[in-house]
Amino acid sequence: MTGHADTILTGDRPTGPLHLGHYVGSLRQRVELQQSCRQFILLADTQALTDNAGRYSKVTGNVLEVALDYLACGIDPARSTIFIQSQVPELAELASYFLNLVSVARLERNPTVKDEIRQRGFQRDLPAGFLAYPVSQAADITAFKATLVPVGEDQVPMIEQTNEIVRRFNTSVDQEVLVPARALVPAKGARLPGIDGKAKMSKSLGNTLTFSASPDEIHAAVHRMYTDPQHLRVCDPGRVEGNVVFAFLDAFSPDPAGVAALKERYRAGGLGDTALKRELEPLLQALIAPIRERRAALAADPAAVWAILREGSLRAREVAAQTLDEVKRAMGLAYF
Amino acid sequence: MTGHADTILTGDRPTGPLHLGHYVGSLRQRVELQQSCRQFILLADTQALTDNAGRYSKVTGNVLEVALDYLACGIDPARSTIFIQSQVPELAELASYFLNLVSVARLERNPTVKDEIRQRGFQRDLPAGFLAYPVSQAADITAFKATLVPVGEDQVPMIEQTNEIVRRFNTSVDQEVLVPARALVPAKGARLPGIDGKAKMSKSLGNTLTFSASPDEIHAAVHRMYTDPQHLRVCDPGRVEGNVVFAFLDAFSPDPAGVAALKERYRAGGLGDTALKRELEPLLQALIAPIRERRAALAADPAAVWAILREGSLRAREVAAQTLDEVKRAMGLAYF
Fold first, then answer.
1. Interface predicted TM-score (ipTM) of this complex, two decimals
2. Residue A158, in any domain of the structure
3. Is residue A205 situated within a structural domain?
4. What percent of chain A has pLDDT over 90?
5. Is the dihedral of CA B295, B296, B301, B306 positive or negative?
């Protein structure tokens, strides 16, 4: 699915610490991808401000938190360039040129943005920056000449928008300056449900497990995990679909055959929720313990983490400045 | 109208050489204002691209032309900072933050932009960059903490938009970082009609006089100037209103009393168009000749002009970078 030469652009809006949902949906994959690809990981503070105007500290205060999560989960700054969007001003400059290549109508038609506008309840107060954020995202992707962008199914229109800009720009200057990107859509099942059974694990829903969770917190989370409300007695048959414990086992067990056997027993009746959860808990304890410890050790020396982000941002600037220079040259804006 | 401490931001979209309309509407005033104010003059190439996407050379090819016009007309790079918008990337970065402070609905309501959208015949293809250009203009103005912005009456809403952003930003960070600006609206009569009698002198209408006009071209332009089509015989009474020759005399004669006397004679009958034009032509020849000569001398050494623009752009960057730094600090985006 990924070639040796792929360059990856990925990242997160830093609006809160990450959690196991991110681990399954993206972090785990990034740790793998950094072995074979050139990977740029964006702490998208500027993008997060597009719908948090005025709530600056909600964003700025979480940059370090997310960086700690990255490093604790095994993203290696020697292999991946972790950088902060606002510290790479070339991205804003590139976006300003791209804004001329996209119509307002096209932005308003973007299905991802339409959904998000609805979710956020924006009406007449829709900030221009929010409507335009796909253009800013196109700048993020193209600045690094990314060829592969891991996204959820719902974000595929963003990559299409980016590639439209790439085509339009290249045509306008009659040169292949920018590079189109492919979406890397995760396999089904790469989305972890919340521990309450809701489809999405999300901080705002309070149904997450973070990388700072203590052994007791992990135990309590497993204890309150949603299973099958109809499964009252151990001997009753139980439902596997929508059962959060099985979703977690599918995501984290190193033994799929063992999980399949558990599913069979659960469906047939005779496997109780408590026994089932006892299968899961040690897996989660073993997964989170080393991450939590690394995270705590890193958090004890924030200056060292900031130094990593600073170095990553400088490295990212070099690459983005090179692309921006090519873009401006192609447009004839290199006067001096 | 202007205090000693005023900082001025003004400029032009470089889409063609300037002409006498610009001289009367702005250049003349800038030459005066640079004596008492700190003046930044923007060659707005980036802004010109918002409705010239893909037509890069129409913009980039005119940067030097407009700079020649500035210098030839007496704008002194030691007193005014002449700079190129695309060479001050801090402006794009500042605009990217301002985009979050303005709603799409507010941009769509901007009367100046509404008019311009109509003039350009934009429909569903309206580029996002064009709709957003008032935000970019707000960045231009505030980056230099300009207190005074010379604009036509039709551009006053742009200053209001800027001041809304100033207020909103300052409130959001609870600090007076940005400075509101006043519009400096020219007195009536500061708009020169086209030589054909149309209300506006404009390159696209072919009714201009440029600063490169030769003595013969000036003579021919005066000869074909629109007067009063009802004024057939010298002895007939003539109309002064709408008469281009009188508009030019009002704009350029150093002798208003003499012009008033001519108007009286013209209205009464007995002053022919040829005689009237003979009053005007020497004024225009005397005005344009030294400008034309300076312009030709400057054009012979383009490297020297580019050096002025480069130096001005660097000076502008320093000021804009300082403001941007204050803005980012106030938002908490100065991590390192």
1. 0.93
2. yes
3. no
4. 87
5. positive
